[in-house]
């Protein structure tokens, strides 16, 4: 196993989560439930106002151009396909959380691995033309995309049902389904520890025989290890070393976002959800607040800036996708609240901070802020969530009392 500097984990309780990849246990052992009101919240910083102002200008320009500001037509996307990108190069020092999907804000990546025809059509819909070199490689060489794989296994009956519009949302037009990864692992363990865990998984399956499934499993683990190494390279492009665990709240936010960024650089899912990150990140914030290395205003700034990046997620979509799902949604769902299996509320101050972004930067459809609702949640939080719902219409609710007994208290 790769050496991990456990000194960086001082101040955290428990040992089980250190011995194996177990984020849920780490959260359960270390989070601080909060049943107070919203009076502790801070207004946006000057840096937040400047960056959000610049992004609003870009969004206005995007709408004026018919909904797409820019599209990539020369570079096939990948974790390390681009150099560093910022909302505004002149303001990059203000960004507390850095990283873009491409080299420019709101520029949509070219993702042919899901289906070259779909990727071409998405570009052509908005007046962009894919380079002949890329089309030649994906159309004339032995290269199977996801879309071709789907059509290869369709039966004649399935094709007729699809052609006659009896079924919608099939794998070939749905945009690769709904994807959510546990991006918290990058912050809690660091990439080297995750790679070591995958190497251990590989070693555990190397004597399972010559069955087809064994080959597939080893191949997929090898792909995962390569992707983790690419994530380290991507972070280094921005001047960060994510090989080791995050040492403080700022690193925890940045490390986690790099994990999510790797996903949205490579996967064009109908829903690229962020997941259940609020309570996890609050643990780092609470430790830094207690140590005097972070202020409440700085904590809110971190939350505002990572949410700003989630609001910028864009994918090149085909017209049929927009007809099926109006408004070009990304569904970067981010959950807050919920109850623990031990009966404690999982509401923290950070849940307030994430909802407060709707006040700091105004209403937005992304990320899809979802309150995991239970009647047992603290009354102060229920009141605040209701107030934000009324004033912004930007919160959705999910019944935690229905979901938790089936999926536990760390579902997403």
SS class: mainly alpha
The CA-CA distance between the termini, in Å, is: 29 Å
Helix fraction?
40-55%
| Rg estimate, integer Å | 22 Å
Order of helices and strands: HHHEEHHHHEHHHHEHHHEHEHEH
Main sheet specs: 3 strands, parallel
Uncertain ranges: none
Strand proportion: 5-15%
Strand order, sheet with most strands: 5-6-7
Total count of strands: 7
So how many helices? 17
The mean pLDDT is 91
Q: What is the global morphology?
A: globular
Word description of this protein:
- The protein has 412 residues and is mainly alpha-helical.
- The chain has 17 helices and 7 strands.
- It has helices spanning 16-19, 23-30, 46-64, 116-125, 132-140, 146-153, 156-163, 184-189, 191-204, 212-237, 249-266, 278-291, 296-311, 319-324, 349-360, 379-392, 400-407; strands at residues 70-76, 107-110, 178-180, 271-273, 334-337, 369-373, 395-399.
- It has a 3-stranded parallel beta sheet.
- It is globular.
- The chain starts with 15 loop residues before the first helix and ends in a 5-residue tail after the last helix.
- The model has no long low-confidence stretch (mean pLDDT 91).
Please outline what is shown here.
This protein is mainly alpha-helical and 412 residues long. Helix content is 49%, strand content 8%.
What are the key terms here?
single chain, 412 residues, mainly alpha, 3-stranded parallel sheet, 17 helices
